[in-house]
Write a structure and sequence with these properties.
This protein is α/β, with parallel strands linked by helices and 434 residues long. The longest helix has 18 residues. Helix 4 packs parallel to helix 5 and helix 5 runs parallel beside helix 6. It has two domains: 89 residues, Immunoglobulin-like (Sandwich); 297 residues, Glycosidases (TIM Barrel). The protein is built from eleven helices and 21 strands. The structure holds ligand IDC. The site of ligand IDC has 15 residues, from loops.
Amino acid sequence: MAGTTKTRGFTATVTIQNLGDPVNGWTLGFTFPNSGQRVTQGWSATFQQSGSTVTAQSLSYNGALATGASTTIGFNGSWTTANPAPTAFTLNGTTCTGGTSPTSAPPTTTPPPTTSPPTTPPPPTGTTPVAINGQLRVCGVNLCNHYGRPIQLRGMSTHGLQWFARCYHDASLDALADDWQADLLRISMYVQEQGYETNPTGFTNQVNTLVDKATARGMYALIDFHTLTPGDPMYNLERAKTFFAAVSARNASKNNVIYEITNEPNGVSWSTIRTYAKQVIPVIRGNDPDAVVIVGTRGWSSLGVSEGGNSDEVANNPVRASNIMYAFHFYAASHRDKAQRAAARIPLFVTEFGTVTYTGDGAVDTASSAAWLDLLDRLKISYANWTYSDASEGSAAFKPGTCNGGTYAGTAVLTDSGNFMRNRIRTPDNFPTS
Ligand code: IDC
């Protein structure tokens, strides 16, 4: 039969489980690995195929899915050449977790990858963010808790520890955990500007002390290796290896530590950042194998946008390691569309953003900040706001002089930015627990 193509058939079923907020209608998307694969007849959804890309839209009776609810659809298909099953699915534009397994007449000799669900932990015994969510991991484009459910962490970033250490002690962190109800403390350890490079042991100890204070209050601790100038992370490679070897060994047994290996690379290519990440991540994983690691992106963690690029450079050439997220920072009203596009393809964590201009100063842009946070809430993207400090600049949450006193809770000590952020962060988390 030389010159002719043999067509064979297969049957597939797809189970859709909604791990996010309730939806009223859904569109499933996936791409066949080979162009010869066609959907010939589908059921329980309206199927459309263009090239190798398939979408399946819900019908009136199965469009509404509560959180945790599932529904099953299926189709018969045909194929001409050896055709592995699609491995990546999206639901309403968001990448799904889970995996694929062959149904009838498996057409390939290599079985497609499957993900075995981890054992479900018991219901939480405490009420803090860490007690409820436990060890985090990256699932598809989301950050998931130990129940395998997407969550969003909302919190604050310290200012540079070399300048504002007097703002971080039991009273101020009680206010962050109890009054602000924050989930996350980002610990910003500058490397230059009188930071880590001037006293590695002292700054390492200071970071560890703050990790302990976050832990004692049930908050996640995000350790930020705050590179800024110079923008090339390779300039600090040896310092980063030394620092992360120390903090990851010291905190390996904790379940609440997240590592941000470079704050804002700038003036360097994504490939240089990847080279840096490839050398620093194994140092952390050698001590703390399951920790989530966040990699800064090109153009001051703008996903390349501030230097004329876009997030495709990351999505098309990701860091090859598990449990990796990418930092996205914003200070201005623009780029929301670009963030939303990137969020459908890669796991994002807004480890820093300001309600003001990128200088860290100026008036609060309430409309833009609210629009940004609405988007982050909807996509369950975690964030830390710059800064939980009394710096004399618009981005600081406390009025100047607050850290010389003993009161941090309530609104009397807050700036406009602090008031705005406290209101956003205090709203209930509703973390999923099963
Ligand atoms: C700013 C501080 C400011 C300090 C300056 C230089 O608010 O007090 O003098 O750094 O160290 C970032 C950086 C962050 C900046 C912040 C505001 O990650 O270090 O802090 N910003 O300019 N990226 C975009 C904005």
